[in-house]
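2.7 Reproducibility. Because tokenized structures are sensitive to small changes in the input, we list the exact sequence used for RING-type domain-containing protein, including any N-terminal residues retained from the expression construct. No trimming or masking was applied before prediction.
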Amino acid sequence: MEPPECPVCLQSYNGDSTIPRVLACGHSACESCLNQLPHPQPPTIRCPACTQLVRFPHPQGAAALPKNIDLLRLSRLLLNPNSNSEQRTSPQRPKKETTRGCFTPPLWSHDLYSAWKDWVLPEDAVLLERSGKQQGVGLCSLTEGKLRINLNSFDFSSFSPFRCRLVDDRKVGILKVGRSCLLDDSVFNYSYVGRVMSVLAKMSEDERSELSLFLSMGSKKCHVSEVYGLWFDVESQSLYLVIERKQVTLSKFVDFSYGIAGGGKDGSANRAVKDQVSCMAMIGVELCEVLIGLQLEGLLCGCLGLSCIALDEFEHVYIDLSEVVLLGRKIRKSVAEIMDCTQKTEDLEAGQPIADLLKNDAFVSPDLLFQLLHKKGVQMGNCSFKYCVDCGFDVWSLACILLRLIIGKQFTEEMVDYWNCLFQTKRDKMISDYEVLYVRCVEKITAMWNASVGIDFMLLQQILCKCLDLDPSKRPHLTDVWKSMKSLTVNLQVNNIVNINGEAMNASIRYCLVLGELCSISNEISIVSKELQNGYDSSGEDFSHVSEVGIEKHIVDGLSVDKVECVDLQGHLASITGLSVGGGFLFSSSLDKTIKVWCLKDFTHVHTFRGHEHRVMAVAFVDEEQPLFISGDSGGGICIWAASVPFGQEPLRKWYEQQDWRYSGIHALAVSGAGILLTGSGDRLIKAWSLVDYTLSCSMEGHKSVVSALAVSNAVLYSASWDSTVRLWCLHDYSPLAVIGEDMPGTASCVLSLYSDQQTLVAVNQNGYVKIWMNDVLQRSIQVHSSAIFALCMEEKWLFTGGLDKTVKVQEIYGDEFQIEARPVGSISLDSVITALLCIQGKLFVGCANGLIKVYHH
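Resulting structure tokens (single pass, no recycling of outputs):
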């Protein structure tokens, strides 16, 4: 037989170092362990054996508790006094698993929420004003540190980003990255964060990965547009990236409409031309550095245009990634138009959509465009390139940008002719040799270069022309382009300065924006209807098995797919004050002095209890061999009713509490498993009544105002009051254990309702706050409503609250025994103040001030 040991440190008891001390629950632990256990609510402690909350001497500690003499005597008999007992190490306590089930089909996982929640901007961070007849950009205001955008009636289907200007002259843009898949006319209104997560959850893993990389690059401020975060516009049901936009564009910094003024008589460049070429080379150097930095992070732009390049406040080159994405979307749209052109009349050239982009100084390499067309099943003559993501995409676009800056519009016109020749139309089938086209193009560019800047920069001209090679494998790397231009700006050899391996850079590339998912996002709203109505999400995964409660599914299983029926139970003539379920029936009390019984199968009215002379304020159901229903009224009357068919007209028992001038009736009821009825009253007392002989067992005094709510859990009674406190009482001897809320006078507000289970305590306040305790430690205090919360209920991990704002709010409570989080899921709007809530058996019961009871069920 093993000697008795402490349940905490597992040491055998002795009379010296491990002294057993007896707690009020009857269990024992050693003195040193009891002193080291946390005391979240002094002067109480959780028994390490049964987790019951019991009183603990303060400040004397465990030494003031009685010794367990019997355990000491038994331990001495079993232990060998001549041997030293080996110290045992405490095994790791298994983590307690929660039995809470799933409330709704997993539209988004906890991991998804944790990964993206910090990127979500507040709902009121961005304000769009769509009033006015003109379309365009309006002024912005910065209010209380929040980014506010003032736009005149903007076309949401356009490809251009929203642009605006803050009062401190910062430009920002909004780039659409997704559309909501939630139904607008659903009974259940998802929260702002919930709508953001629903859009992210419907994205593929590649889309989220690319978006994450985009956000990561935007947060590093490495000469690319800064990304503030994700914002959801409720009116357009769209998710946007809020992105910084610089004021100074490249076109404002230098006039490059006609390129650089020509060379001297002997073909050499004059001093002014050399300065201009050096300036363009410096721009090219910084562009190379930005592109190299992006490629080292695994990101290719894939295309560039003059609209993508701006200057920061220090006149350094800066790439606006949002413009790159918008340009990529235009290219994807042009690909679709090219496919239509190849199947239509001969008068429309297939290359015209790309030519239109070129006229706006937007450049995309042929191999990237051919790759997009190849994915759509369009073959480009005898051109055979490797279809893969290649750094050559950016090299081509960079060379086009620099040549456009140096030569001017003539280069753009030449590129338009070049692209028209690349596409074999039905009218002209003679041209098929792409190498010949490239040679012709280089000859024309060389002639224009000589006419513009002379023959002094032929090395730069040659490497830029090599960048335009149709074969991406023959193009130089960005590092080679950087070296050639850097030597022009500093007049020294830089061959040994940069040692970045171009092949290694190419191997590290993970995403190309133009080929990626951000550029292929549809502008159409995808409404989830048929898929989810059949129990499937867009990915095809079956969620029909989740959250089944008996035969029926949970209420929000239906709310999430808009398959919810709402039944109105009419019959009460005044506000609903209490709801309780038992024996297959719903019991509802009202200020009209009656209790009505409703059948849960078909929601028909079964019976009405009429025995109270005053307003019925609280109800409770007792599930015993003979089910009982208990009700209390504002006059102090308590009625016991038989809660089984046939229902009687008269109560089984009726009595009144003693009244005095302070008395305002019964406000709360609770039942203890020991056959005890507990009442909370207006006289600030909590009374315990025996359900055997209906006599008063005890009165608990401590609250300074009306006792508004009672809850029983783990042999502890929790009582809430208008005095802004929650008190804990031991149900064994009705002694006070602890007081919660006394030390928070600045945030004090009447506590109107309570919920408690094995580990969790939730209280709602008149100021709209919800407070959550886990293992007696306050974990969260959040304002869920803007006004008083009159009712709450909780089932599994879902918390419902309702009150003066006529809205039921749903919060998901998740976490572990050390940390709790509350995530807003959504809301249900009603047309009356909510006075009672109950969620049980997969149904949500809502009692209203107009006497109506609404039942939401799947």
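The longest strand covers residues 820-829.
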